[in-house]
Write a structure and sequence with these properties.
Helix content of chain A: under 10%
Distance between the termini of chain A: 37 Å
Oligomer: heterodimer
Largest sheet of chain A: 6 strands, mixed
Order of helices and strands of chain A: EEEEEEEEEEE
Number of strands of chain A: 11
Shape of chain A: globular
Number of strands of chain B: 11
Number of helices of chain A: 0
Mean pLDDT of chain A: 91
Shape of chain B: globular
Strand content of chain B: over 45%
Structural class of chain B: mainly beta
Chain lengths: 113, 115
């Protein structure tokens, strides 16, 4: 099983659509979970941390299921500017709490007018 | 908003040459990292650095790689004898701490091309 696995997509959606991305991780000791966004040939930028209780930031909602080792990201009312690659990121240290982040391959989203 | 800065943005070098990639982390951050991304592949951890020593390193970070914090602001990655497969985007990152959910802030990267 890959350390962090995502569907690479691409997801092609119209503006205003709701889209969901999923991710699974293999290290049950992981303590920290994030979604990062990466535009073409740019650095990863933190979109949001993911908390056990689930959390929302505007149009973005993240969920974590520790039992299933599963993370999700929901984007509502998609904008053209949401077009990017979304990276599922998990803390990968042996204690589950270091700066060693394990990145998924990323899911590409293309929002069309 | 404070940011991590990296120089140069693009470095071209010949195989076997030494390169030094430079980074200025966010000033109040204590933990520093290097990651790399080969074109079309995922971002990979190289090394973490705290209190003037390496905290953790990956299998990629072999004897050809070294890191240094030569002064209070810069953090460098040196590749002693570059190989073609070292061609990648190298990202520096920093964080305030390693506690739960302390996010990493990435610089805009140095594209290394080894010919």
């Amino acid at each position: 099983r890959k350390e962090v696995e995502q569907d690479p997509g691409p997801f092609n959606v119209p503006e205003g659509a709701t889209v969901a991305f999923n991710c699974t991780y293999s290290n049950s000791a992981s303590q920290s979970f994030f979604w990062y966004r990466q535009d073409c040939r740019k650095e990863p930028k933190l979109l949001m941390s993911v908390y056990s209780s689930g959390n929302e930031d505007g149009r973005f909602t993240a969920q974590l299921n520790r039992a299933s080792q599963y993370i999700s990201l929901l984007i509502r009312d998609s904008k053209l500017s949401d077009s990017a690659t979304y990276l599922c990121v998990v803390n990968g240290g042996s204690t589950g709490n270091t700066g060693k982040l394990i990145f998924g391959q990323g899911t590409t989203l293309q929002v069309k007018p | 908003e404070p940011e991590v800065t990296q120089t140069p943005s693009h470095q071209v070098t010949q195989m076997g040459q030494e390169v030094i990639l430079r980074c200025v982390p966010i000033s109040n951050h204590l933990y520093f990292y290097w990651y790399r991304q080969i074109l079309g592949q995922k971002v990979e951890f190289l090394v973490s650095f705290y209190n003037n020593e390496i905290s953790e390193k990956s299998e990629i970070f072999d004897d050809q790689f070294s890191v240094e914090r030569p002064d209070g602001s810069n953090f460098t990655l040196k590749i002693r004898s570059t190989k073609l497969e070292d061609s990648a985007m190298y990202f520096c990152a920093s964080s305030e701490s390693r506690v739960y959910n302390s996010p990493l802030h990435f610089g805009n990267g140095t594209r290394l091309t080894v010919t």
